[in-house]
Structure formats: C-alpha cells, structure tokens
Amino acid sequence: MLVRQNIYESVILFLYIFFCLSRCSNAAYSIFSVIGVLAIIFLIKKRTVFSFDPIKNFLRYYVIFFVSLFLAAILYGDITVVHSTWKYFLWTLPFWIVFLFESKEFRPDIFDNALSLALIAIFLSTIPQLNAQYRVVGYFGKPTLLGTELAIIVPVMIIITVYKFKQKNLMGRVMLIIPTLLGVYTLLMTKTRGAIIGVLIGGILLAALLYSIKKNNVKKTILMILASLTIVGCIGAVTVQSFHRSYDHERVLLLKSSYAMWEDHKLYGIGFGHWAREYPNYISPAAKEPDLTIPHNVIASFFDETGIIGGFGFLLFVFGTLIILGRRIQQNPHNIYYQAAFWAFVALMCHGMVDTGITNRNALQSISAILGMAFASE
Given 12, 211, 246, 353, which is the most exposed site by the fewest CB atoms within 10 A? Predict the structure, then answer.
C-alpha cells in the first residue's frame, strides 16, 4: 500500500511540475493543481509530518509581501482589487505543492526529469517558427513571455547538468545535455534582450558568490563582479545597434508616466491590476503606443498599483529572498537547488526591469515551484 501511494505521489508531482514549467496546457496545469492540493490534504489527514524549518525565514518576507498587497487593496476600497490580489496570491500555490511533496520525501530525479521534458516540449513548439519568424514564440503567443519562462528554467537546467553530469552514465548525460542545449538555443531565438541579459547577470552573480565562499575574499569578489559586468556592458555597447528596436524610447516615456501616476497615488496606489485603466490619463503626448497595458518595469508596476505600502513590501521580499538564498548557498555550497533558485530568481528580477517579471502569472508560478524545490532540498 505504501509503495503504491509513493508511486501515485511521484506521478502527480512529475506531471504537476512538467505542466507548471512547460506551460503547454493551462487546463492540465489546473487539473493537476487540484489533484496536488487534494493529495496534500490526504497526507495531512494521514498525519504526515512536514518540516517547516527550512522556510521559516523566507515565510517572514513572503507574509510581509502579501500582507502589504492586501493592505493596499483594502485601503483602496474596491472588492475587485482585493479579488485581483487574492488571485495573485494563489499563483504562488506551486511553492506549497512542490515544497510539501518534496519535503515529505525528497525526489530530485522527478523534478530534474520533469524540467528536462518541459524544455524539450517548449523547443518542439518553436520548430515551425524557426525559419518563418524573426523571433520564436512557441505556444506562449509572445516572444517576451517565452523568454521570461526560459530565463527562469534554463539556469536551473544548466546548474543540474553541470553538477550531475559526472554522476550519470552515457544515456543519462545525453538526457542532461540535450534539454540544456535546446533551452539555451530557444532562449537565444526569442531574441528577448531582458531575459538573455538577466540570465547573464544572474550567472555572474552566482559565480561571484561561489567564488567569494570558496576564497573568502570580498575585495576580489567585488572586482570580479565589476569586471564581469563591464565585459557584459562592453558587449552590449558594441552590439547595441543589432538589438535596438523602434519602441525603446517608448519605455522611457512609460517610466515617466508611471512616476507621474505614483505621485498622485503614493500611499496605496491605483489598485492592483488597474495600471492599464489609468495609463490613458498619464500617457505622454510623444507616446506612439497608447494601448499598452503594463509599465514594462516591475518596480513601477508595484509602486503604481499598490503605492508605497505594496512597493516596499515587494522590495523587501525580493532582497530578503536573495539574502536567504545567498546564506543557504554559503551554508550548503554543494546544494545545487539553492544555486539554481538564486540564479533563476536574479534572472527573473533583472528581466522584470524591462518587462512584466514576477507580475506575470506563468513567471510567478514557475519561480514559486523552483523556490519550493530549493527549500525542500535542505
């Protein structure tokens, strides 16, 4: 009976992680979310013991973040805003499902295999577009959405491949290398600048952190970070014309409009999810895209929609999470899932400076699942 239960749990977890990270079917993801929740309720009723010690510090920032969002929504005084905030909170469900399943019995191969299959599925969806389109979109609809997803999951796959390559036989190594290469290739073919730069910066910061832990030399680490970022900057300066797009100036105007919006609603904002509704009142006369629905900057998004209350709650959550992950890497330098989560989280936050970032449903669900895996790995 116990063996059969473990098999059921493994199948549910595998399919849940696959649909969460691949985004190939929203219906399938929803179905397995419900199944996952029901399975956890079943485990609780069976008096399964879960250890919450690994997430105690993280929960402080998590709770502060969402309490700040709900407080801003309540002060705004519109039930639809409270409902939108509640929906946003539910997007973090993958954290709890993955964390609870994996903390009960840590099964890294299930996560690794589901991630590998997700990257293969994403690549296969782009094949018809490789020669037909300048930027691939897969089944995501927009190259930026595909780029956001890959900026989160590609770093995780790279870390898993680097650390587990020597442990595998020939077939196992092939099954690591293929999805990694396909993931990197697909990310490059999206030509999403924010996602690509985010992955580069995340990799640099992770390498610097690991170097600092190994050498215990802060000065050299800072120099290494500055040198690496300078190289990235020089490459960007040389290739800027190749990556220049007609709407680049529009992003500057968006930030100016967002700042004006925040100045009029400083404390609790314009209401979570209301940016698109308010933007026409603040649009610049020089703007050429009056129908934009996001400010293309996640910080501007939170400060505009939730004011100082939610904005600072968001910043505290971001920096608090990064500090916790950094400390866990220092304490457990051979734990690959903390490293993977750190890299993915940095990449997502960097990309969020020019796009939706963590305000996007797919992105929040995917990074939540990865964080859940990281904290369960302790």
Answer: 246
Question: What 3-state class would DSSP assign to 284?
Answer: coil
Angle between the N-to-C axes of helices 170-190 and 108-126, in degrees from 0 to 180, rounded to the nearest 10: 50
Q: What 3-state class would DSSP assign to 85?
A: helix
Residue 262: pLDDT over 50: yes
What are the tokens at 127?
């094949």
Cα three-residue angle 209-194-145, rounded to 5 degrees: 115
Across 178-198, b (16+ Cβ under 10 Å) vs e yields: ebbebbbebbebbbbbbbbbb
Tokens representing 371?
A: 């964080």
Q: Are 328 and 338 in contact (CB under 8 A)?
A: yes
Residue 347 and residue 198 in contact, taking contact as beta carbons nearer than 8 Å: yes
- What residues contact residue 213 under an 8 Å CB cut-off, 6+ apart? 329, 330, 333
The Cα 172–Cα 105 span in angstroms is 23
Residue type, 172: G
- Give the torsion sign (CA, 105, 110, 111, 114): negative
The helix (H) or strand (E) run that includes residue 142 is: none
DSSP for 181-250 reads: HHHHHHHHHHT-HHHHHHHHHHHHHHHHHHHHHHH--HHHHHHHHHHHHHHHHHHHHHTHHHH--TTHHH
Query: How far is Cα 350 from Cα 343, in angstroms, rounded to an integer?
Result: 11
Q: 166 pLDDT band (50/70/90 cuts)?
A: confident
- Are the CB atoms for 339 and 332 separated by under 8 Å? no
pTM for this predicted structure = 0.93
Summarised one tens digit per residue, pLDDT across range 269-310 is 999 999 999 998 998 888 777 778 889 899 999 999 999 999
Angle at 21 between CA 203 and CA 144, to 5 degrees: 65
3-state secondary structure of 52: coil
